[in-house]
């Protein structure tokens, strides 16, 4: 991550790289209020599901404990195992609830920022007393203090309201049978837990945007840091230019290797050259190489050396060069013109073969095929020179 630059104003949002670096160090937005609210809500739901059965089991355990025979209660040898059994019963009763809350304690932080396992937060070098004192008297610390005061006030208010509404039932617990008293106690505790969870949800809903804002503000960057990071990730303009040049050189070399396998090279005659490949079974001809000026001359030279026919058709060559990419099939608008060129090349190759056979046999040569004229190789206006500004 870029080092802090305190001399410049931090007005730029954090880049993806800075956010990833911060996350790798465990620096993500967190809301303790969200964790607490999640725990309270899940705890209330678990209590609603498990509470009635828990209350009945607890009642049965209490009945067993208080129904011990007098001799057992007064004998240390029998009292200790009885108490141990009661403790084990209580542990087994609350074990599912405790296990659920243990899982929630780890799942809560994942709601905001996700789970992160990292060690930089434990670095002893981070334990700077001077910075710690500074954080105690910072604006962030003041906000946390006000938030804590608000939580105490709202929690106290919610507890007072629930307590006032349940005061008569609470005072009557001593006169109720055990089963009714436990059900009433469970109802009071559950209402109190729901009230606290509702208050905590409201506080968490207000705290989450604030924590995200504080985290984004802390990771803001200066313009110089953004530029420096971009240079480090992308390289200097000179380096990028060299990389592009190398990529073009490699691509050009691969393209020129495809010229010997072409069916025909259509030229301008020297400024443009486009090599087309068409084999039996192909749906349409494919552009395997194209170039202008020096590259066009190299394509033409390789074609001559490889025995590939070179056909001069300036308008058609310019249209193919400007409107087709490497590996792209010839557009339907140019099929007729390209088909005439390919037909002429095929006829010319056949005529050359017949001429060789006739020469060997002493027979007269047949007339050579006539190449298509420029007027026959029509190029649509939208693909011709007049379509190019």
List keywords for this structure.
4 strands; single chain; elongated; 4-stranded mixed β-sheet; 389 residues; name from scop; mainly alpha; 2 domains
List the helices and strands and how they pair.
Elements lengths: L15 H9 L7 H35 L3 H5 L1 H32 L21 H8 L2 H27 L1 H5 L6 H41 L4 H12 L2 H21 L6 E4 L4 E6 L8 E7 L1 H13 L2 E4 L1 H10 L11 H27 L28
Parallel strand pairs: 1-4
Antiparallel strand pairs: 1-2, 2-3
Helix pairs in contact: 2-4, 2-8, 6-8
Give helix % range.
55-70%
- What is the general shape? elongated
Helical element count?
Answer: 13
Largest sheet, order of strands side by side?
3-2-1-4
What is the average per-residue confidence, as pLDDT, rounded to a whole number? 78
Category by helix and strand content = mainly alpha
Give start-end ranges of low-pLDDT stretches: 1-7
Roughly how many Å is the radius of gyration?
43 Å
User: How would you spell out the order of helices and strands?
Assistant: HHHHHHHHHHEEEHEHH
Q: What's the structural domain tally? A: 2
Note the gap between the termini.
48 Å
Q: What multimeric state do the chains show?
A: single chain
Number of β-strand runs: 4
Strand content: 5-15%
């Amino acid at each position: 991550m870029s080092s802090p630059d305190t001399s410049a104003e931090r007005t730029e949002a954090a880049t993806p790289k800075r956010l990833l670096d911060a996350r790798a160090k465990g620096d993500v937005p967190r809301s303790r209020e969200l964790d607490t609210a999640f725990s309270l809500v899940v705890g209330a739901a678990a209590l609603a599901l498990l509470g009635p059965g828990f209350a009945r089991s607890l009642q049965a355990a209490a009945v067993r404990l208080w129904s011990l025979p007098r001799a057992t209660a007064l004998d240390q040898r029998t009292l200790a195992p009885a108490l141990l059994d009661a403790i084990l019963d209580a542990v087994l009763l609350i074990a599912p609830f405790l296990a659920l809350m243990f899982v929630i304690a780890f799942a809560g932080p994942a709601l905001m920022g996700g789970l992160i396992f990292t060690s930089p937060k434990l670095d002893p070098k981070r334990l700077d007393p001077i910075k710690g004192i500074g954080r105690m008297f910072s604006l962030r610390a003041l906000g946390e203090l006000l938030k804590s005061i608000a939580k105490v006030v709202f929690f106290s208010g919610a507890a007072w309201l629930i307590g006032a509404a349940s005061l008569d039932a609470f005072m009557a617990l001593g006169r109720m049978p055990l089963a009714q008293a436990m059900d009433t106690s469970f109802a009071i505790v559950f209402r109190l837990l729901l009230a606290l969870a509702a208050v905590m949800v409201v506080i968490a809903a207000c705290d989450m945007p604030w924590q995200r804002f504080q985290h984004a503000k802390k990771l803001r960057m200066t313009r110089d840091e953004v530029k420096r990071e971009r240079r480090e990730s992308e390289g200097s303009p000179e380096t990028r230019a060299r990389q592009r040049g190398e990529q073009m050189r490699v691509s050009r070399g691969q393209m020129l290797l495809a010229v010997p396998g072409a069916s025909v090279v259509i030229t301008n005659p020297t400024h443009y050259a486009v090599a087309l490949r068409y084999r039996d079974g192909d749906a349409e001809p494919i552009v395997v190489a194209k170039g202008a000026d020096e590259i066009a001359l190299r394509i033409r030279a390789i074609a001559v050396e490889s025995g590939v026919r070179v056909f001069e058709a300036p308008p058609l060559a310019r249209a193919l060069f400007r409107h087709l990419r490497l590996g792209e099939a010839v557009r339907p608008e140019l099929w007729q013109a390209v088909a005439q060129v390919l037909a002429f090349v095929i006829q010319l190759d056949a005529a050359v073969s017949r001429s060789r056979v006739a020469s060997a046999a002493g027979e007269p040569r047949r007339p050579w095929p006539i190449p298509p004229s420029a007027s026959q190789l029509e190029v649509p206006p939208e693909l011709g020179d007049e379509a190019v500004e």
